[in-house]
Amino acid sequence: GYNLGVATNNSKEAVLVFLERIAPSLNVTVVGRNGKHPELMKPNTWSVSQILEQIKGTQTETIFIGDSIKDYECAKRVKCDFIGMASTQKKRMRLQEVLDDKNLVRDYYELLWRYFGWEK
Description:
alpha/beta; two-stranded parallel ribbon; 39% helix
């Protein structure tokens, strides 16, 4: 029941290949960097705005999940909720500068368990 989007500073093609390998039936909208316009990379809101337009979503119903301060800044500029993905201690320390622990998760399993009631 959720629309998923990936707004990435990486190439769209690389993300699509990865998603095809791990979840071929998953329908995900992907917006990658525009090589001719590096100024549009996050924390610029361009990629997230493109996702919202394509999935016909709104900021109030969007949760941005990211692993960097740039992702956090982008979410704040778009005015959507943010959950930090801190898979390493270094990322956790950086994200704790702007988030409390209730908005930080270690991995997708914790995210699914904590926010969506999913169990392994």
